[in-house]
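thread: overnight batch results

M.L. [08:02]
morning all. the overnight job finished for the chain we discussed friday. pasting input first so we're all looking at the same thing
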Amino acid sequence: MSEQEAKSANIVPGSMVQAGMITRYTLLDYFRSRRFAILFVLVLLISALLTVVFAWKRPPEALLNPLAFYSTWWGTSATLVVALAGIFFGGDAISSEFQNRTGYSVLPNPIRRSSVYVGKFVAALIAASIILVIFAAITVVNELYYFGPNVPVEFWESALFAWVYLLAVLGFTFFLSSAFKSGSYSILVSAVFLLFGFALIEMIIQDLVGIEPWFILSYGSGIVGNVLQVWCPSLLSASYCVIGLPHVTTTATTIGRQVITVTSYNAGNAEGLVIMVAYLVVTGILGLVLFERKEFN
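M.L. [08:03]
and the structure it wrote out:
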């Protein structure tokens, strides 16, 4: 081997090259593992259940027009699919390096931890995006069956919002995965927060405290379904109906002689995007900092 070839062999790949290699091999692990197959089957089961319900019950409120169809099908299920994808692919993405002791053999090499973090994040994003695209494709196929080629632009907006929510979810799960050295703990905490924890906190803040929960991730992700809703300020005339829910709605309920007023908040599209992007940036940076400082011992 010549001197020049020896020098070339000792050159450490750059951060982007290292992140690309980590992405490639992590994706291969995902596709070979059971988790991708299990999540794929879960999405098929959810889609099959919705297909059977629509074909058998034919809910009139959902089959009025394409927008109502997507609001009932996609608006109520897309965030669940995103949460499951984030838990499956991001719940133990970093903590597995400690639990399975793979980091002991990988990180002593000249590989930057930031490259490992970014590579795993990109791999999780690609795998989760594939799952989301599959669910979206099945949704569109069902809509085409009932209404023909008439996909409203609001659905594509909702799909974009769902993908941004996926980024935020992965940022949050990667942060939790960096905070724990046990994959079981990080997956459990991620599942608790994403499946009902955030929604419960949001409900308590709105109903009991009475303030806008602008700092809760589930509040920002509400735009995935809100953009598909039709709100009629006047019940007497449908000409006043608009797409999207109002920012603030107040309902009064009479219980005996007491009137209880409840104020509900709905994030606007811009506000929801800002909340989700903020979660992505803040939790992503915190997760990387934790991973950089955590010791393998």
